[in-house]
Design goal:
By secondary structure, the chain is mainly α. Helix content is about 80%, strand content about 5%. The protein has one domain: Skp domain (Protein Binding, DinI Protein, Chain A, 2-Layer Sandwich). A two-stranded parallel ribbon has the order 1-2.
Length: about 180
């Protein structure tokens, strides 16, 4: 009888420990991040934006110079129109048309380059963010980290929001790499 009671006691102790472990594994650590905020507050984004703005400004200056040149040709044609022969007028009009096509091609090329670079920089920054979120989640034991925009309901408790931590660590890493 004592053996049966002792065996039952050991079984219950064993099962009790097993149930506690099972319960602990049922608790899932979940967090969220505000990717838009991280993207905007990441110093690398700010540096890219500054660099990118100066490149866009330079492209705008080149476009404006080409537009002024084209406008000057149009004004010259208009002012000399009565003095020019039909052949000379046609040549000037062809020159203006060629310059207009050149300007349009230049604008399209610059726009395409801007879009490609913007996408490249954005993807690089998003990759940094994803890697940092994953690193923090693994280090702190989060099994799921959601993007705040993907959530229908977000609890106001800050304990689930990793945004500040991600921004801080990204900026520290970026500063160390500079």
């Amino acid at each position: 009888m004592k053996i049966k009671v002792l065996t039952l006691l050991l079984v219950f102790l064993f099962l009790g420990g097993f149930i506690r472990v099972a319960k602990a594994e049922l608790v899932v650590n979940i967090a969220y991040v505000d990717v838009h905020r991280i993207f905007n507050e990441y110093n690398k984004t700010k540096d890219f934006q500054t660099m990118w703005d100066s490149q866009k400004e330079e492209a705008s200056k080149q476009i404006e110079a080409k537009k002024k040149e084209l406008e000057k040709l149009r004004e010259e044609l208009k002012s000399q129109e009565l003095l020019l022969t039909e052949e000379a007028k046609r040549q000037r009009q062809e020159e203006i048309a060629a310059k207009t096509n050149e300007l349009n091609k230049f604008i399209n090329t610059v726009s395409q380059q801007i879009n490609e670079k913007d996408e490249e920089y954005s993807n690089e920054i998003l990759k940094d963010i994803k890697l940092k979120v994953k690193e923090i989640a693994e280090r702190e034991g989060y099994r799921f980290v959601f993007y705040k925009d993907a959530l229908i309901y977000v609890t106001p408790e800050k304990q689930f929001d990793l945004t500040e931590k991600v921004i801080s660590e990204l900026n520290q890493d970026y500063k160390a790499k500079k």
